[in-house]
Amino acid sequence: MEYFQSIDWMTMLYCFIVGGILCVIGQILIDKTKLTPARILVIYVTVGAVLGGIGIYQKLIDFAGCGATVPLTGFGANLAKGAIEAVKEQGLLGAFIGGVKACAGGIAAAVFFGYIASLVAKPKIKKQ
Amino acid sequence: MNPTDSPKEYNEYVTKKAPSSPILKDCFNAFWVGGLICCIGQLIFFYCKYKGLDQTSSSTIVSICLIALAVFLSAINVFNRIGKFAGAGSLIPITGFANSIVSPAMEYKSEGYVMGVGAKMFTVAGPVLVYGISASVIVGLIACFFI
Hints:
The structure holds two protein chains of two kinds. By secondary structure, chain A is mainly alpha-helical. Chain A has one domain. In chain A, 83% of the residues lie in helices and 0% in strands. Chain A has seven helices and no strands. The radius of gyration of chain A is 18 Å and the shape is globular. By secondary structure, chain B is mainly alpha-helical. Chain B contains eight helices and no strands. Chain B has a domain of 99 residues. Chain B starts with 6 loop residues before the first helix and ends with a helix. Classes of the chains: A mainly alpha, B mainly alpha. The interface between A and B is large, with 84 and 80 residues.
């Protein structure tokens, strides 16, 4: 029960609103343009990396927590943030190491769980 | 009227017959499902904080948990239904990234484990990683030489 007392409900609300708005922007892109989901995801990651690189996205993360980190823009921002932090420590080498290192957990989890799931799950038989 | 008389008439016919996309309803569904997924992430994040983990580890654990959840739901064919209902609401959060890895991997299983599962896994995730990682390297190079 102590855990529930530790929850900051205002952050929760901002998280819901910001996460929702980011998804609505994606939905408008789907409905109003002919962009495929793959392109939208690429746009989100790239925009996130640019915003993360110039430091704007960190403010959104401070404000909305997971509402900003869970959407794919957060993935991009995390890549950029990792690269910048690694550059501060290791110089040029960091530019190549930092980004993937910061997101390694997510990438490895997605690949590993995805592979296991494809081994275990039966593919859905498409009804014609 | 024969609808294919001229390209113009045909286009009008198609526009008339195509289901009108209820954009407001789509956006509303995307909003609350997307928000809800982020809130689940935030709950996990607060739990990690409560257990005394630092910011970076907590964020990574949130990603891993949401990915695992999305992969599980994809494997039992529930995620597709959520996706149809919520559109971008389930696509934009990291759950969509996980789903984009699992569903082609499952679908192309019959083509073998290397060129089927292994290669098709990255049909959507590949471009995302290419552009994301490239952007991060560019950001890193700029940070290295100009700051």
